[in-house]
Every structure is written in C-alpha cells, then in structure tokens.
Design a protein that fits this description.
By secondary structure, the protein is α/β, with parallel strands linked by helices. The chain is about 40% helix and about 20% strand. A hairpin with a 2-residue loop joins strand 8 and strand 9. The protein binds 5'-O-[(R)-(carboxyoxy)(hydroxy)phosphoryl]adenosine and zinc ion.
Length: about 375
C-alpha cells in the first residue's frame, strides 16, 4: 500500500510518499518547503501569508515527490473533471489550471490513497492543503484520508531513521503520549490503538509557545525553541534566577506555562541589558523548569494508567534537555521519541497515520466533504 501525504497546518508545506509492506514502512519520497524566512520579520506565523505560500509550494513539491519516488503512472483523462477542480481551487490563483496541466502530463501515479491534515492548525492554511488533496483525489480517482495532525505527531514514533534507512517500531499498549508543540501541550492516555483520551492539557500557553515567547524576551530570532535550546547549552550556572515550575504539585495532569514566561519577563526587565552568559543561564533554567513539570506529570500518568509505552510527540520533542531527562527517568518503560527529523511538522507522519487508520476500522463517510478544523480534537 502506498500513500501520498500532504501537510499544510502551519508554516511548513510538506509532501511525502509512504509505503507499507506487511508491518514495514518505507519512505519513497519526502519534500518540504519551510516559510521561516517569510514569517521571521513578523515574529510569528501570519496566516494569510502562509496560505499564499502553501498555494505556491504545493505543485512544485508534488512534482518533486513524484519524480523522487519514480512510481509508474497511467494516462489520466481530466476532461470531465476540470470544472469541479476549478471551482474547488477558485481562491488559489492559477493553481487549478497549473494542476490540471500537470496531471495531464504526468498521468495517475500508482498510489492507493491521498492523506491530508485537516486539523488542528491554522484554518486558512489547512484549507489550501485539503482542497489540493481533494482535487487530486477527484482527478486521480483515489481515496482521500483526512488526518488529525496531533495523531500524526503521536504515530511519528513508529519510524526510526538511521543513516537514510527507516526502521519500523512497535507501540505496546496501554500507552501514554505527551504532545508538546507550538499550539498544544497535552497528556494523552492511549488504551488501545487509535483510542485517545486527553487526560491533561495546558490552561494557558503551549510549551512551544512559551519557548518562542521567552526567546523573544531574550531577543533571540524566530522560531525561538531551537534558539533557546542552543543557547542553554552554553549555560555557566553562575546565576540563579529562581524560576518557578508552575502546577508541579497540582493534583491533576494539567499544565500552565504563562506564569513561568512572565517570571522570565520580570527578571529580564529588572536586569536590563543581559550579557550572553546571563541569557544562557536564563535559557537553561527555563528549560529545566519546563522539563521538571513535564516529567513529573508524565511519570504520574505512566503510573496511573500502567502504561507500557511512553511517547513524546510535537516540535518541542526535538529539545535535547527534555529528551535526555526522559531517557534518564524512563528506563523501565518502552520510551519512544520521534526521530529528530520527524519531531517538527512533516508529511511522513501524516502518511504513517493514514496507513494505521486503514488498518483499523477506518470509515470516513464522505471524505470529499471534509472541512478544515482549526481546533480539531484528538479522539
Ligand atoms: O510541531 P511543530 O513543528 O508545529 C506545531 O504543530 O505547532 O512545533 C513547533 C514548535 C515551536 O514552538 C518551536 O519553537 C518548537 O516547536 N521547537 C522547539 C525545538 N524545535 C522546535 N522547542 C524547543 N527545543 C527545540 N529544539
Ligand atoms: Zn505540529
């Protein structure tokens, strides 16, 4: 089974072709265009700029993954479908015409389905990817599989990447997943495959959001997470800023990070011009404070649900301090961290999730009527 996967939930346009034979995954092609340079000057993602970029990037990336995968193709007659495609992509400039022309040239590749993220994320950008996927599904007459981005982050751990080769991993259930990204901080109990119960969430900022805001306070470039992570490695530990670890002893699985961020803000204000050394110590202590709460609540959840596997997913799982703290404290459990190349947004994880969905009782009544859902929840 071979699936073309499309991801446009935020500021990365990503396409991949993921194959599964038996239980083994392989990635036939993977391509991505990041918009960091465009959003950098605004200090965050601007939805309408992002939407325009996705519309521009999708077709070149499709060409690229189809070339890279060298899948055979058969002739495609688009004549009776062109009107629908033009209607579907009416708001995307020349995309409909360009796509029809391309499909006439390239034909129908031998894939089995098209997977696309339909939420959560920025609605304008989700719509572009979803409509593009619908257009391909109609033109090629292939099944459309709308995918939840957060489930993608969870199942990204199924692939291990070693020197260009992918190995397939196994999740023993029950499992608990910690999702830490730019928009989400959630603890999820997964009793059995595809059965998700969110047991805790942030009451204010998401972890990634806190990293990005603290980076801005320390005058580091966007996106802040990787910058904080880099700077924290230079910490001298000469300064103690006494940052709090909010809600560490609360009697639930919820989180809160805005107080920690505000604490950094007040300390930074009272210090005035901070030296690089002070900034590095601040970055380090911020990371430590975040890690401490994430770890404490995760260990509690593992115990409560008797989990056999612990999964971390989402962009912040690329953070080395968090990775090593969890590795040190979770030696008796199957700890699955995503490969660093699959930690942040990508289309491979969307392809994997579609394969896993097809394996179960997958039923999507009318995928061609799916709508982009910015707040789509896990269930
Ligand atoms: O999952 P993701 O790529 O996009 C969303 O779905 O939100 O996560 C992006 C978030 C950003 O907030 C970014 O700053 C953070 O992940 N991030 C990191 C690191 N790499 C990315 N945070 C901490 N340390 C990192 N190394
Ligand atoms: Zn994400």
């Amino acid at each position: 089974m071979t699936i073309l996967a499309i991801e446009t939930s935020c500021d990365e346009t990503a396409l991949a072709i993921v194959k599964k034979e038996g239980e083994n995954y392989s990635v036939l092609a993977d391509a991505m265009l990041s918009q960091i340079k465009i959003h950098e000057e605004w200090g965050g993602v601007v939805p309408n700029l992002a939407k325009r970029e996705h519309a521009k990037n999708l077709l070149p990336l499709l060409k690229k993954v189809l070339e890279e995968s060298s899948l055979p193709a058969e002739k495609c007659d688009t004549s009776r479908k062109e009107k629908d495609i033009k209607e579907l992509l009416i708001r995307e400039g020349n995309l409909a015409d360009d796509l029809i022309k391309f499909v006439k040239e390239i034909g129908i590749p031998s894939i089995d389905a098209i997977a696309v993220t339909y939420g959560p994320g920025l609605e304008p950008t989700l719509w572009v990817g979803l409509n593009f996927a619908k257009a391909l599904s109609i033109l090629w007459n292939k099944k459309l599989i709308p995918i939840n981005h957060m489930e993608g982050h969870i199942l990204s751990v199924l692939l291990e990447h070693e020197e260009g080769n992918y190995k397939t991993r196994i999740i023993d259930y029950p499992a608990v997943a910690l999702l830490i990204s730019g928009g989400h901080t959630e603890l999820v109990h997964i009793k059995e495959p595809m059965s998700y119960e969110v047991i805790g969430r942030t009451r204010d900022d998401a972890v990634g959001e806190a990293f990005d805001k603290v980076a801005r306070i320390l005058k580091l470039p966007y996106p802040g997470g990787p910058e904080i992570s880099k700077l924290a490695k230079e910490a001298t530990k000469d300064n103690d800023f006494k940052l709090p670890s909010p809600m560490i002893n609360s009697d639930d699985f919820d989180f809160s990070f805005s107080g920690l961020k505000t604490s950094v803000l007040y300390k930074a204000k009272s210090l005035g011009d901070m030296t690089n050394e002070m900034k590095a110590d601040m970055a380090n202590q911020f990371e430590q404070a975040v890690t401490k709460v994430l770890l404490k609540k995760s260990l509690d959840a593992v115990e409560k649900f008797d989990a056999k596997t612990f999964i971390i997913g989402g962009g912040v799982s690329a953070n080395d301090t968090i990775r090593s703290a969890f590795k040190d404290s979770m030696k008796d459990i199957n700890l699955l961290l995503p490969d660093k190349t699959l930690s942040t947004d990508n289309a491979i994880m969307i392809g994997i999730t579609a394969h896993e969905r097809l394996k179960g009782e997958y039923k999507e009544e009318n995928p061609l009527e799916a709508e982009a859902r910015g707040n789509l929840a896990l269930k």
